[in-house]
Amino acid sequence: MHFTYPTVPMTDEQLKALPEFGFDSPFKVASLLLLSLCAWSQDREACYQMIDTLKGPQKMSPMDRQFVRDRMMGKGDYLARAYFEGATPDNNYTPNEPYSIDVEENAYTYNDPGYARVQVNTTGADSPRYITLRQKGEEWFVWEFAGILPDIRKPKAEDPWA
């Protein structure tokens, strides 16, 4: 599914104010997670608050926060942006505006009842990355997203071999 956002929210209030905000689709929630991670380099606490909103009833633990911090450290300016259309290592992962992202289904997306494992692509890696969402009633929430935080190709500005 294709999602387009006019801006990147920098607070939980801005995230909730987006017309696209909602928990009715695992694909939508996954796209909102990637959008939320873009705020990490500006305000970590605001980023964590947005993730907590998307996680629903189970908030981030201190260990979850540490994991995100460890993965984003040194690449927080580009790691989340790398999943958006137009972002490439050659342009230092500068996405097109408005911000667009594709969240895809595959043969295994709904393998486990109550869960959805969606995939996102980045030009920074050779294979898709995954986000797992959990259903509660009719709503979907972020369950596991470590798969989108591994290292990717360095942006050209940071690559001494470019």
Number of helices: 4
Average predicted local confidence, pLDDT: 95
The rounded distance between the terminal residues' Cα atoms is: 33 Å
Q: How much of the polypeptide forms β-strand, as a percent range?
A: 15-25%
Provide the structure class.
Answer: alpha+beta
The low-pLDDT segments are: none
Q: Got a strand count? A: 5
Percent helix, as a range, is 25-40%
Radius of gyration: 15 Å
Please describe what this structure looks like:
The protein has 162 residues and is an alpha+beta fold. It has helices at 12-17, 26-37, 44-55, 62-72, and strands spanning 2-5, 99-102, 115-120, 129-136, 139-144. It has one domain. 25% of the residues lie in helices and 17% in strands. The strands form two sheets. Strands 3-4-5 form a three-stranded antiparallel beta sheet. Strands 1-2 form a two-stranded antiparallel ribbon.
Describe the structure concisely for a colleague.
The chain is built from four helices and five strands; from the N terminus they run βααααββββ.
List the keywords.
4 helices, alpha+beta, 162 residues, two-stranded antiparallel ribbon, 5 strands, 25% helix
Task: Show the helix and strand layout.
Blueprint: E1 2-5, H1 12-17, H2 26-37, H3 44-55, H4 62-72, E2 99-102, E3 115-120, E4 129-136, E5 139-144
Antiparallel strand pairs: 1-2, 3-4, 4-5
Helix pairs in contact: 2-3
